[in-house]
TrEMBL record:
Keyword Signal: yes
PANTHER family in alphabetical order: SELENOPROTEIN T, THIOREDOXIN REDUCTASE-LIKE SELENOPROTEIN T
GO cellular component: endoplasmic reticulum membrane
Keyword entries, A-Z: Redox-active center, Signal
One Gene Ontology molecular-function label: thioredoxin-disulfide reductase (NADPH) activity
Domain of life: Eukaryota
UniProt-recorded name of the protein: Selenoprotein T
A GO biological process held by the record: cell redox homeostasis
A Pfam family matched in the record: Rdx
Keyword set includes Signal: yes
Length: 144
């Protein structure tokens, strides 16, 4: 979206478009990391379990019998961990003012919609009202 906005906005040379990720809540991030570590552990046990000499024979036997289940459970943990770390948030601010939020609207804007909003906030404000002497810095921040 950043590249498309830079190409389509007539005043794109006057503004800086910055992308950033929306932070994941700390608890969700920690659980997601734990799921990723558990994924690696289950894969290591499922693939190299019989070669690990320190495991009791009953555990080695169980791993041999349930290898497919362990690999499936590991991949399931990986999917859960990934979904916990993705916020799906999308917010756009202009000069520190929030002009669009997926968290509030529930939808990701199209390039045309963002272009219209940005033009309204920049060019139309610049040329529509001559009573103000301040010019906005036109810094746009969007998620990467």
């Amino acid at each position: 979206m950043k590249v498309q906005l830079q190409r389509s906005l007539p005043n794109s040379k006057e503004m800086r478009i910055v992308g950033a990720t929306y932070p994941t809540p700390p608890l969700r991030a920690a659980i997601g990391r734990a799921c990723s570590f558990a994924f690696m552990g289950t894969l290591a046990l499922a693939l190299a379990g019989p070669q690990m000499g320190f495991l009791p024979p009953t555990v080695v036997n169980f791993i041999g019998q349930q290898r497919g289940m362990m690999i499936g459970a590991g991949f399931m943990l990986n999917m859960v961990g990934n979904s916990l770390t993705q916020t799906g948030a999308y917010e756009v601010s202009l000069d520190g003012e929030l002009i669009y939020s997926k968290l509030q609207t529930g939808a990701v804007p199209s390039v045309e919609e963002m272009r219209r909003i940005i033009l309204e906030k920049t060019l139309l404000e610049d040329y529509g009202d001559k009573s103000t002497d301040t010019k906005p810095s036109n810094d746009i921040q969007t998620p990467a």
